[in-house]
Design goal:
The protein is mainly α and 215 residues long. It has ten helices and no strands. The radius of gyration is 20 Å and the shape is flat.
Length: 215
């Protein structure tokens, strides 16, 4: 008799397999094999791969919430910065994590409490609710885009750099184009430093353009 499975088991198995096979190799058939069931059994829970990705993203956020709740709330800048770092760390823990998380929809309302609290930090600091939402959306999209680029350089968490991003070899190919060469070192060299510098620019821009000055 085939084992009974539920949505949570399928999503958990999919996230475990992600580091092994990547997003392109993650199929319902492959997940079914891992769970020792026939592929049609999964269609009771997910009509297609997109529905599965939505559930995986939801589970990824669930796993972030405890760490996000523990972030220092001493100032809105500190909170926004530290929370964004936590999101990046979480996404980097999964192969193709940014591709899975970005562009998906949460499958339940469990996110509402954490989002309400995160929004509240900015509203209490003087942002309007709409401006607070725009601030969070801006740092989230920056982070997902940045991590997506990172994960092309280091496709598997903890792995070596993809040889395509060997920067000295790239510089030799681009001899005679010093600015394009320098851009490569900046984009794909020290990824941690690059993220932090970009994040500082984003947070500074948010303060200038979205925070309503107090009277």
């Amino acid at each position: 008799m085939a084992p009974r499975i539920d949505r949570a088991q399928v999503a958990d198995t999919a996230l475990r397999l992600l580091n092994e096979v990547g997003l392109d190799g993650l199929t319902l058939r492959r997940i079914a094999k891992e769970l020792n069931v026939q592929a049609p059994a999964l269609y009771w829970h997910f009509k297609n791969k997109q529905e599965l990705l939505d559930e995986m993203a939801t589970e990824m956020f669930r796993r972030m919430t405890d760490r996000l709740a523990a972030v220092d709330r001493g100032s809105w800048q500190t909170f926004l910065t530290e929370a964004t770092r936590e999101v990046r760390r979480s996404l980097l823990g999964y192969r193709d994590g940014a591709k899975v998380f970005g562009g998906t929809r949460f499958t339940d309302t469990g996110y509402v409490g954490p989002v309400e609290g995160m929004m509240g930090v900015l509203v209490d600091a003087g942002f309007t609710p709409r401006a607070a939402a725009r601030a969070w959306f801006t740092v989230n999209t920056y982070t997902m885009g940045y991590v997506m680029e990172e994960q092309s350089v280091y496709p598997v968490p903890g792995s070596e750099r993809d040889p395509v991003y060997a920067l000295d070899e790239r510089a030799r190919r681009l001899e005679g184009y010093p600015l394009a060469t320098e851009a490569g070192y900046e984009f794909f060299g020290d990824l941690d430093r690059g993220f932090e510098e970009g994040l500082r620019a984003v947070v500074a821009g948010i303060e200038i353009t979205l925070l309503t000055p107090r009277p």
